[in-house]
Specification:
Shape: globular
Strand order of the largest sheet: 1-2
Distance between the termini: 21 Å
Strand content: under 5%
Largest sheet: 2 strands, antiparallel
Mean pLDDT: 88
Helix content: 55-70%
Low-confidence stretches: none
Structural class: mainly alpha
Length: 161
């Protein structure tokens, strides 16, 4: 069972929306380099795999609701932090989107929307803005999920949750 943060739905279960989501990303979920993201702490209180699932699932839901490219948003969200190193270095914010894109290309072909979203998900920290609306969704969802993950972990640690 796997649930995105604040979601009551098992994204690997029988819910119709969860099945639709998994249909978009099942090949990535099966990849060993993606599975290895569970070994990297991310935003202090979660692992990089769960952060990527959170970004992917909520990007998928938002684009689905808006009638935009939910497939590209789900896939880019899942691969936007696909790098395998300790991320505490100074140039990490600038460099990791390129590493994530290169690693994503080892798993699958990327369409232009997916590549744009992966490469530019750190905007405005990096100078290049996303081109596609789905890339903006991944970019904004990434920041919202990071904030939610940090606050949830912090509040749980001090006993508020």
């Amino acid at each position: 069972m796997m649930k995105a943060i604040f979601s009551g739905i098992d994204i690997t279960g029988n819910d119709p929306v969860a099945k639709e989501y998994m249909e978009c990303v099942k090949d990535i979920f099966c990849d060993s380099s993606f599975k290895n993201l569970k070994d990297f702490t991310h935003h202090r209180y979660t692992c990089r795999l769960m952060h990527s699932v959170n970004v992917s699932y909520y990007s998928f839901l938002l684009c689905r609701k808006l009638g935009w490219n939910k497939h590209a948003a789900a896939r880019a969200g899942l691969m936007h932090d696909l790098y395998h190193y300790d991320s505490r270095g100074k140039s990490h914010f600038r460099l990791h989107p390129g590493y994530a894109r290169d690693n994503a290309l080892k798993i699958c072909r990327l369409d232009p929307v997916e590549e744009d979203a992966i490469l530019k998900h750190m905007w405005p920290v990096t100078k290049h803005r996303p081109i596609y609306r789905e890339a903006y969704v991944v970019c904004i969802t990434d920041k919202l999920c990071a904030t939610a993950e940090y606050l949830y972990g912090r509040f749980a640690r001090i006993g508020i949750l």
